[in-house]
Design brief:
- The structure is a single chain.
- 65% of the residues lie in helices and 3% in strands.
- With 133 residues, the protein is mostly helical.
- The termini are far apart.
Length: 133
Amino acid sequence: MTGYAPSEAARRSGFSLDTLRYYEKIGLLNGVGRTSGGRRVFTDDDLSWLVLFRCLRDTGMPIAEMRRYAELAREGEHTTGERKALLEQHAERVEEQMRLLQRQYDHLREKIRFYDRLPRSRAAGPVDGRASG
């Protein structure tokens, strides 16, 4: 079993030390080991959880749902259906957000193309301070 100092776990996960402490405090990370001097030591399993939490957080899952997922996982195999359902619901929200972002991105690209078609003197921007098209 490999052990990682908090700074290394933070570096590998992309979370700050404060976030690691917070995740431990609220029960997302459970049973983080300690040295005889009381310093936290993260395992490969802890880092695997952090990779999952990074994915869930980056895709907008609320902390309460992340906690629920972690609680279910710790309860055992009989919760796999509920865990899968939780992830499927989240994936649906992520897909909707992706569709929204794609529509907004397409709108931005169209606006850029509009400005690309303008003669140079007009593309510089409005003279009177009003927003254009």
